[in-house]
Design a protein that fits this description.
By secondary structure, the protein is an alpha+beta fold. Strands 1, 2, 3, 4, 5 and 6 form a 6-stranded antiparallel beta sheet that branches. Strand 5 and strand 6 form a beta hairpin. The longest helix is centred in the middle third of the chain and has 17 residues.
C-alpha cells in the first residue's frame, strides 16, 4: 500500500534526527510535488550507503545543492547492512526527494532533497543562529585591528 505524501510530510516533521526536516517536509507536502517512477522501492541499508556515498561525491563535483544527505548517511551508518528499507521518490520540476523508511511510512530513516546542477533548492533551510549585524562601532574596531598590507612604514 503506497504511503500518502501527507503521511510522509508528517513523519518527516517528527524525525528529529533530520536537521532540515521542515524544509523537506514542505517540499513533500507541496501540491506540485508528485510521486516519481520507482522501479526498486525495496532496498537495503548496504545499498543505500553505497549509492549515497557515491552521490555525495558526485554532488560535490557537479556543485549540486542538497539537504539531508549527511543526516541520511549518519543514520544508515549505525544500521545493519542487510536491513530492508523502502524508498519513496518524489519530484517537482528539477527537484527530487528520496525518502527512506522502514516500510510503514512512519519511521523515517533519512531523506535527501536535491536539484539539477546549477539549480538552487526550492526551499532554503534557515539557520537558527543568525549573525548580528555589525554596528558602525564594531566596523570601526574591525578596521583598526585589520592588518594593512600596503601601509607605508
Amino acid at each position: 500500500m503506497p504511503i500518502s505524501q501527507r503521511q510522509l510530510a508528517v513523519s518527516l516533521l517528527e524525525a528529529a534526527h533530520i536537521a532540515e526536516r521542515h524544509a523537506i517536509a514542505a517540499f513533500v507536502a507541496d501540491a506540485a510535488t508528485q510521486p516519481a517512477p520507482n522501479p526498486f522501492p525495496q532496498t537495503s541499508v548496504g545499498a543505500v550507503r553505497q549509492v549515497w556515498r557515491q552521490r555525495a561525491a558526485e554532488f560535490r563535483s557537479f556543485a549540486i545543492e542538497e539537504i539531508g544527505l549527511m543526516c541520511l548517511l549518519a543514520a544508515v551508518s549505525g544500521m545493519g547492512v542487510d536491513e530492508t528499507l523502502v524508498q519513496e521518490i518524489l519530484r517537482a520540476g528539477p527537484h527530487t526527494a528520496n525518502v527512506f523508511h522502514h516500510g510503514d511510512g512512519c519511521r523515517i530513516v533519512g531523506v535527501v532533497l536535491y536539484g539539477k546542477p546549477g539549480t538552487g533548492l526550492p526551499c532554503r533551510p534557515t539557520s537558527r543562529l543568525k549573525r548580528a549585524t555589525p554596528t558602525s562601532r564594531s566596523r570601526a574596531r574591525i578596521a583598526v585591528e585589520q592588518l594593512d598590507l600596503f601601509a607605508q612604514v
